């Protein structure tokens, strides 16, 4: 497999940065409007410990939907496969990430997959813990361990900004309650509080790359040999990343890049090359489907040049 030199990485990045002009930063969470629109950064961390970076990697950003991959893993650890898939499906929805269309149209009214908002809110309801604060604490601890014990914090401004304006997610959650996907024992506002917290966890490209590395290495931290996630659950998460990680642009990304990845509306993308690279990208300018335009272009370019596709 071809090597990556810092100069080559910089050349790819400079080329992809131009594509940022075609998109917009997310604004439905008001606090995300302050993101630097033209920023683009990438960090790769290898299973061999090598780290390589280019661009604006010092830009902090929030996990947003990237958190959904890791809450899915924690929910699987807490509840097992059968209980999780009694509540969410395994299929791409083909709809926007915040759509509620199929919750009404398709029986039995469970979310199509754990990466759309309805599915992720359901998954968060399955995380064990006596209160939203305790659940959030467990989520932070789990994410932190996968991030190589990097201290993580919640961006409170982003948390409050989303909590105050999340009319659509609130509607989805109440719809799920009515469909009995969120059971009698579950308080909708408590679930949302935990969900908004997980989305507001602040990271850098290096944090994403480190988290992706554990997935690339099938749940084992390659730096200390510890198994952090059972292999079967990593397999489930990575399959969802391929089929649903870029929402209704996942098919196109699978054709063009062919690697497991997950985007967030902050402009972050977590991606991985099995047994080789954990990758973190930031590029806040988004396309209509909520994915980083320059970030996707960069990953597609690199995958083609380095023959990364799984297929
Ligand atoms: O729930 C939301 O709408 C956001 N907190 C996360 C959505 C998101 O990141 C979609 N990604 N492209």
Q: What are the key terms here?
A:
45% helix, 3-stranded antiparallel beta sheet, globular, alpha+beta, Beta-lactamase, 2 domains, single chain
Can I get a quick summary?
This protein is of the alpha+beta class and 311 residues long. It has helices spanning 6-17, 67-79, 81-85, 101-105, 117-125, 132-146, 156-165, 167-178, 188-199, 205-216, 231-244, 250-256, 293-306; strands at residues 41-46, 51-55, 61-62, 153-154, 201-203, 261-263, 268-273, 277-282. The chain folds into 2 domains: 6-62 and 203-306, 3-Layer(aba) Sandwich (Beta-lactamase), CATH 3.40.710.10; 65-199, Beta-lactamase.
What is the ordering of alpha helices and beta strands? HEEEHHHHHEHHHEHHHEEEH
Q: CATH superfamily name of the largest domain?
A: DD-peptidase/beta-lactamase superfamily
By DSSP (H or I, 4+ residues per run), the number of helices equals 13
Strand content: 5-15%
Main sheet characteristics: 5 strands, antiparallel
Strands ordered across the widest β-sheet:
2-1-8-7-6
Mean pLDDT: 97
Q: Please state the overall shape, judged from the principal axes of the Cα atoms.
A: globular
Named once each, the bound ligands are: 6-diazenyl-5-OXO-L-norleucine
Level of helix content?
A: 40-55%
- What would CATH call the class of the largest domain? Alpha Beta
């Amino acid at each position: 497999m071809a090597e990556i030199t810092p100069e080559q990485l910089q050349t790819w990045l400079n080329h992809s940065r131009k594509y940022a002009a075609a998109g917009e930063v997310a604004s439905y969470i008001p606090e995300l409007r302050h993101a630097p629109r033209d920023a683009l950064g990438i960090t790769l961390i290898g299973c061999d410990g090598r780290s390589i970076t280019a661009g604006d990697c010092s830009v902090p950003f929030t996990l947003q939907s990237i958190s959904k991959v890791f809450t899915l893993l924690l929910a699987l650890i807490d509840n097992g496969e059968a209980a999780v898939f009694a509540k969410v499906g395994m299929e791409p929805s083909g709809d926007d990430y915040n759509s509620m269309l199929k919750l009404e149209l398709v029986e039995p009214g469970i979310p199509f997959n754990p990466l759309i908002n309805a599915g992720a809110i359901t998954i968060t309801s399955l995380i064990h813990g006596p209160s939203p604060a305790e659940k959030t604490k467990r989520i932070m601890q789990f994410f932190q361990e996968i991030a190589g014990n990097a201290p993580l914090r919640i961006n409170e401004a982003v948390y409050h900004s989303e909590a105050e304006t999340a009319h659509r997610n609130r509607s989805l959650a109440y719809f799920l309650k009515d469909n009995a996907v969120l059971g009698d024992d579950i308080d909708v506002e408590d679930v949302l509080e935990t969900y908004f917290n997980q989305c507001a966890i602040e990271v850098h490209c290096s944090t994403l790359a480190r988290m992706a590395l554990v997935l690339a290495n099938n749940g084992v931290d390659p730096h200390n040999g510890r198994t952090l996630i059972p292999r079967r659950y990593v397999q489930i998460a990575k399959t969802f990343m391929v089929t649903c990680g870029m929402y209704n642009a996942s098919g196109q990304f699978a054709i063009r890049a062919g690697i497991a990845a997950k985007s967030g509306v902050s402009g972050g993308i977590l991606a991985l090359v099995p047994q080789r690279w954990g990758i973190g990208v930031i590029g806040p300018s988004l396309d209509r489907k909520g994915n980083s335009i320059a970030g996707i272009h960069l990953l597609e370019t690199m995958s083609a040049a380095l023959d990364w596709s799984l297929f």
